[in-house]
Amino acid sequence: MRRTLFMAVVLPTLAGACATTEPDQQVAMNESKLVCTREAPTGSKIPVTRCRTPEDIEAQRRVDKETADNIPTALHDVLTGR
């Protein structure tokens, strides 16, 4: 019983740990023009594969830049009570 449990639980876990030694931002392009990256979500050390189109990546960059540009203004408004 213990050996079966070991083979069913521990070995796949160890194999998965070995597979996650790749760089966090490994990029792969496939035929459908998807860009796949391995990213660890906030609060986790376990990377997940995230595939997006180049257009989705650019749109997210624009949103992130706009958000970052608005942080000083939003912080000022909170501190001054506006």
The stretches of 5 or more residues where confidence is low (pLDDT under 50) are 17-26
Would you report the number of β strands? 3
User: What is the rounded distance between the termini?
Assistant: 65 Å
- Note the total helix count: 2
- Strand numbers in spatial order across the main sheet: 1-2-3
Beta-strand content: 5-15%
Shape: elongated
**What is the helical fraction, as a range of percent?**
40-55%
Largest sheet descriptor? 3 strands, antiparallel
Broad structural category = alpha+beta
Order of helices and strands: HEEEH
Radius of gyration: 20 Å
Rounded mean pLDDT is 75
Q: Number of domains in the coordinates?
A: 1
Overview of this structure, please?
This protein is an alpha+beta fold and 82 residues long. The chain has one domain. It is built from 2 helices and 3 strands; from the N terminus they run αβββα. Strands 1-2-3 form a 3-stranded antiparallel beta sheet. It is elongated and about 50 Å long.
Name its key features.
single chain; alpha+beta; elongated; 3 strands; 82 residues
